[in-house]
Amino acid sequence: MPQAVVHVLFTIIVLDLFRDHFLKNKRELPLHYVFIGGIAGLLPDIDVPLFWILSNFLGLNVPWFHRIFTHTFLFAVIFLALSLVYFDLNRKASRLFAVITFGVAFHIFLDWLFTGGVAPLYPFSDAVYGLNLVGKLSLPLAIEGLEAIVLLWWLWHEEKTHKISDFI
Ligand SMILES: [Zn+2]
Question: Which residues contact 99 (CB under 8 A, 6 or more apart)?
Fold first, then answer.
C-alpha cells in the first residue's frame, strides 16, 4: 500500500487545509465532502477486496491484479468526466465528483511516492513509475513516524485555527 490510514488521513488533511486556507466560501466544500474525499482516497485499493471476493468467494482463478486498473489516470478520469458532465446540471454533484477525482488521484500519487510503483498509463502503457520511498528508506517505522508527525501537526493546526479542544 501505504497503509489505508495514510490514504484516508492524508487526503482528509489536504482537503481540509485547502478548505481552510484557499477556499473563499467554505460552504462550497462542506465537511461531509471532505469525509467523502477521505473515502475516495482509499477507493483505488478496492481492488484488494475485489480480488478476494473473486478468488476466495466466487472461486475464480484470476491473477493478482492489485494496483493495476484502479491506479491509473483512466480511473481518475472517469470521476473527472462525471464532474464535468454535472457541471451545468447539478453544481453540488459536480463538486462531489471533483472531490472524488482528487481523492483517487492523490491515492495514485501517494502510491507512486511511497511504493515500488504504479502504472498510471495502463492500459495504454505498462510502464511502472514510483519513488519507493518506503523501500529505499527500508524503514517501515519511518512511514509510521511520518503518519504520527502529520497527524500531530494537523491536530495542532486545527487547534490553532478552530480551537477544537473547546469541543472536547
Ligand atoms: Zn493503492
Answer: 15, 29, 33, 34, 36, 37, 40
